[in-house]
Specification:
The radius of gyration is 15 Å and the shape is globular. A hairpin with a 6-residue loop joins strand 2 and strand 3. The chain has 114 residues and is of the alpha+beta class. The protein has 3 helices and 5 strands, in the order E-E-E-H-E-E-H-H.
């Protein structure tokens, strides 16, 4: 079984995020270690976290705490907050923290001159 640092139960919940739907862990690019959240990483490590670049979104770096299946970043970001394997709901609020884990796609604004 994959070890998740900071986990307080078998479903990968941590002391920072432990609601019924807080059941994913994230493998940090910088150290290759699964953590319950970025606070858990911050408390345990002495290095800065790194975000996963878009080019590496095919990497298995998300762990469903219910069925313990590793998902690729792309699978996770496109799963509509439900494990594609066991159908357990994930916390929709996690999207507010995506920028801490995953490179954000750049949006180029088009400015029209009038």
């Amino acid at each position: 079984m994959i070890q998740v640092k900071g986990a307080i139960d078998a479903n990968t919940r941590c002391r920072h995020y432990h609601s019924e739907v807080d059941v994913i862990a994230i493998k940090f690019k910088c150290c290759g270690t699964y953590y319950g959240c970025y606070y858990c990483h911050e408390e345990a490590e002495d290095h800065e976290p790194m975000v996963w670049p878009i080019a590496e979104w095919g990497t298995k770096a998300i762990l469903c705490g219910n069925c313990h299946t590793e998902l690729t970043i792309h699978e996770y970001l496109s799963c509509n907050y439900e494990c594609p394997i066991c159908r357990t709901s994930f916390n929709r609020g996690c999207k507010n923290h995506d920028h801490l884990y995953f490179e954000q796609e750049k949006v180029t604004a088009v400015v029209s001159k009038g």
